C-alpha cells in the first residue's frame, strides 16, 4: 500500500501543496522541450524533402554553435561571426549534397542513414580539429540576448523565468512561423512540398532535386544554428551534447517523421513529461530517469499509433 | 589460374549445398585457422594479442550478432551495446554467486540472459518497422544502461560502481583476472568465436536463416507463405542478443578485466552498427572484415604519424581519426554500398576467371 501511495497519490499531493514548484518544473520542461522540438524540426525538414533520416542534425547544432563561438574568439565581431556561421552552414549543405547525397542517389534508406553517420563523425573530428575540443561559452551578450531572470511572486511561492528562455521561445516561434510562410507562399517552398510528395513527379515538372536538397539542408543548418545559440547559452558548447541530440528521436516518433507541427508538439510533450516524471516520480526509483523516460514514452506510444501524432498513415502495399 | 573449380564435380546434394563448395576455399579456411590457432599465439607479443586480436575477435562476434538481426532479418537495432552489457553483468553475477563453476560455462550461459532481455525488447518489432524500430531499441539501450548504474545489486554494491573480474582457474590455468596470460585468454576467445561463427553459419544456411531472410525481404509476403512473424522476429532478437551477450561477457572477462556501465553506452552500439554496414549486411565474413576495419584502423592511424616523423598532439590525432573514419564511411558507402564482403566476392570472381576479363 505504501508503495502504491507513493506512486499514485503522493506526487499529486506534492503538486497541489506546492504549485509554484509545479509551475517552475512545467516551465523548465517546456523550455527543454522547445529545444528538442527545434532539433526535431531540422530532422523533419530534411526527411520530408529527401527521405534522408539525418542523424547528423544534432551534431550540426553543436557544429554551428561552435563555428559561431570559435570565430568570435578568433576576433571576429559577433554579428559578422553570425553571418559567417550562416555562410558555413550553407557551404556545409552544398558539400553534403555534392559529396554525399548525389553519389548515393537511389540507394536504400539505411545506406543514406549510415552516410549521415559518416557526416556526424566527420563533423565531430573537423569541429574539434579546427576549434579545439574544450567546452566553450556561448557569446550571449555580444548577440544582445537578455540575461537574468524575472521572478514572480505567485501561487504561494516564487516562480522565476529566465529572460533568455523567453527570448528563445519568441525567436523560435518567429522562425517556425517564417518557415511555415516560406513553405506555403513562396515558389521554392511549393517546390519543396512537391519534392516531399514525390521525387519523380517533381522531377518531371522541372524541379531540380539537387537545388532543393541544398536548400533544405541549408534550412536545417539555419535551424541548427538558432538551436545551437540557445542551447549553448544554457550549457557550454561542446560535442558532449550529442547524447541530448538523440532525445530528438523520441520526439520524432511522437510527432511523426513528416510533420512540422508534430515535431513541435512532440518536443513539448517529451520535455514536460520528462521533467515532471523525473521531479515527482524519479526519486522513487533512484533518479536519473530522464535518460530513458522519453524513449519509453515513445515506445509505448508507438505500440498504439505507429505513425506518430500527426504523421501520415503508413499504408503497406504489396 | 590457381583458384578455380574446374574438375570439381558436385555429386551429392550435400556437396552442392556446402558452405565452401570449392576445394581452394576449404584449404584457405584451414590455413587461416592454423594461423590464428597456432602461429599467432606463438609469434604474437602481448600487444598484438591484447590490443589487436582479442578485441577484434570480440567485436567480430558482436557484429555477427547484430548482423543476424539487422543483416539477415532486417530489424534495425541500436541496442547492441546494452545487450552486450546484459551479458557482462549476468556473467559477473553468476560467477560471484557460484564461484566454483567453470567460468567458460558462465560466459556462454550469460548469453541466455541477454537473449531473454533481447526477446522482450524485440516484442515491439511486430508492430513497428525500420527507423521507428531503431528508436524503440534506443529505449532498451538507455533503460538498460540506467539499470547498470542505478541497481547496485548488479555490481555487488561495489563503491566504484564498476564490475571487477575475479580470478578464476580452469584445470590449474588462470583464465580470468589480472594475472591471466594473454595467450590463454586469446585462445579461449578464439575458440568461442570460431565455434559460434560455425553455429551462426549453420543457422543462416538452414531453415531458420531462410525464414529470417524471407522476413527481411518482405515480411508480408513471408507471412503469406506461412512464416509466423512473431516467433521468427523474436527468435532473431534472441539469437542476436545471445551473440552480443556472450561477446559482452568476453569483453569484460577476457579483455578489459573490469568495466563500468559507460563501456556499454550508445557509442558502442553505433560502433558495432558501423562494422556490419561497412563489412556487409547479411554476411558473416563481412562482420569480421567490418570489425577489422573499424577497430584496427584507428590503431593504425595512431601509429602512422609518429612513424612518418610528424609529431602530432594526441588529441589532434584523435580528431583526425574521427574525420578519417567519417570520411571512410561515406567513401565506402559510395564505392560499395553492399560492403567489404561484396568487394571480397568481386575479388574472388576476378580470380576465378583470371587471366581473362570474363
Structure in words:
The complex is a heterodimer of chains A (318) and B (358). In chain A, 70% of the residues lie in helices and 4% in strands. Chain A is mainly alpha-helical. Chain A has a two-stranded antiparallel ribbon with strand order 1-2. In chain A, helix 2 (19-50) runs antiparallel to helix 9 (209-234). The model of chain A has no long low-confidence stretch (mean pLDDT 80). Chain B is mainly alpha-helical and 358 residues long. Chain B has one domain (20-353): ABC transporter involved in vitamin B12 uptake, BtuC, CATH 1.10.3470. In chain B, the strands form two sheets. Chain B has a two-stranded antiparallel ribbon with strand order 1-4. A two-stranded antiparallel sheet of chain B has the order 2-3. In chain B, a hairpin with a 2-residue loop joins strand 2 and strand 3. The two termini of chain B are 13 Å apart. The model of chain B has no long low-confidence stretch (mean pLDDT 85). Classes of the chains: A mainly alpha (318), B mainly alpha (358). Chains A and B meet through helix 5, helix 11 and helix 13 of A and helix 6, helix 11 and helix 13 of B.
Distance between the termini of chain A: 52 Å
Instruction: Please give the largest β-sheet of chain B.
Output: 2 strands, antiparallel
Q: Largest sheet of chain A at a glance? A: 2 strands, antiparallel
Number of helices of chain A: 13
Please give a handful of descriptors for the protein shown.
heterodimer, A: 318 residues, mainly alpha, two-stranded antiparallel ribbon, 13 helices, 70% helix, 4% strand, B: 358 residues, ABC transporter involved in vitamin B12 uptake, BtuC, 4 strands, globular
